[in-house]
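User: Could you walk me through two proteins back to back? I'd like the raw sequence and the structure tokens for each, with a short line separating them so I can tell where one ends and the next begins.

Assistant: Of course. Protein one, sequence then structure:
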Amino acid sequence: MKHSILLFFFGFLFLVGVNLLWAGGAWAQAEPEAAVNQSSSASPQQIKVFAGLFDYAYSEPGVMSIEGTLFNMGVEYRRLATATNGNLWWGLNGALAVGQPTYDGAVVNLATNVRTPVKEKSTDLILDTEALLGLTFWPDNIVGFELSVGLGAWYLYNKIGGGGSYTRQTTYWTLPVGGKIILFNRRSVRAILSGQYNLLLRGRVQSRLSEASSSLQDSDNTQSEGYGTKLSAKLEWARPKGAIYFELHARTWDLERSDGAPQGNLVFYEPKNDTRTLGANVGWVF
């Protein structure tokens, strides 16, 4: 994670530095029309595909952690809401991440309450989707701005290796509210800074405890308090058809303890937990 933080910091400085260097020529003279970035809001629809990797860190403080690298790929579709209004748009985004991070925790004997330390590989899969409705302000100016709101769904499949482990599936339904600053420092190159707040509407955690012990039943817990954030810095280069871009991104989740699921004299719940990701993507715009 420390190496990724350095990557993010120096990568961001690189994006800003390159963009400022190229900005000098843009302020001094106008570019020819052929160099206009065709990935801007002038196009009625836009498709982006991307691939990359990120550091993933999930933590239940005082209980366990899961950390490692996940590989991801995704697609984003965006279209103007009407042919006559170039500022209102809607979009559908989806991303898939997979990897085998390391679980660092313990197996608890419920009869004696003795904890046995465990460090095993974990198979993780994340599906991140959202539907957005947005509004673009000043799309043809040197500096543009966007606001968006929508509905999101974040799904995690997690299976820890070794004895005493079980499969867990987590789903967050969220209300994403975001903003974006678009810097057209040069018509063929632009920098995009974006942020998003994700309010948790409802969370569900399904734990197949019966896989760990035949004396247990599977648990189904509800999460009702929490939030997430997303930040990214992107540098985009116009091509004869579309554009290519490099993106640095970070994401967080902070969830409170779930409700309890009683089984006999025991009550199972999902502890307070947080998630942190930090990574980079390369993408193409069509």
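----
Protein two, same layout:
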Amino acid sequence: MLRKLILLAMFFSFSFSVSAQETDATDKVVDTDKTNAIEETAKVTEEAEKKEDEEPEDFSYSNQGGSEKNRSESVIHLGITPIGISVDSITQPVSLGYIVNEDFMAAFEIGSFSYEDTDDTSTFALDYKNSGFYFRWFPGNSFNIKLGVYHRTFEGSYLVEETLSETYEGETYTYDAEAEATVTSTATVASLGIGNMWQFDWGMTLGVDWLVYNAVLSHDYSYTVTNNVGYTTAEAEDELAKGEDIFKQIHGLPGLLVVQVGFSF
């Protein structure tokens, strides 16, 4: 009986010892995993803080997507051409555009210009009107190719009122002379240009057409001489007829550095 009790006690003692050893081993594994996880988290945090210190957050224009991204988020474009080395720039045209996507924009443009000069004997007046449609294709971020068709009209008038004198057989005679001439030059012009149009994050656009080529597709020219008193009508009409080629050349003049500012939304 005593032997059985001793053997039973030894069995329980051995089982407890094995169980205790297994528990200690498990606790050691868990503690090791926790330590490794804490060390890894600390390492990642340290590296992130170090990178943030070395590379501060960049809010530059290019980092925010540039013109292409901003166009993709816009639909309507409003613009004006305040300055440029071109005939149509003197009309300071305004434009209303539809942004199809980041690659294409279609727009309608219209502008006008009036000039008048008067001296003691004459009055010169000129009206210039420019309207048309154009398309911009953006193969790059801001770089674009512009293709447009325009209707452009010059309307000019020249009025002369003066007193003339002639001497005949020793006598001097004076008389009032008056004449008015009008000229109209209308052209359909195709326009091809290359340039850049930058669009900023808050909607403003700034564009420059570096070079614009204009081709006259059709040209109508007319002139009249009215209220002619004291002048030779034939001579005046001959001079006005020479203006047809001159006006046609003016319609076809190229453009340089044509600036446009606007807003897209």
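Strands lie at 76-85, 94-99, 104-118, 122-137, 143-168, 171-199, 204-229, 255-264.

Let me know if you want the two compared in more detail.
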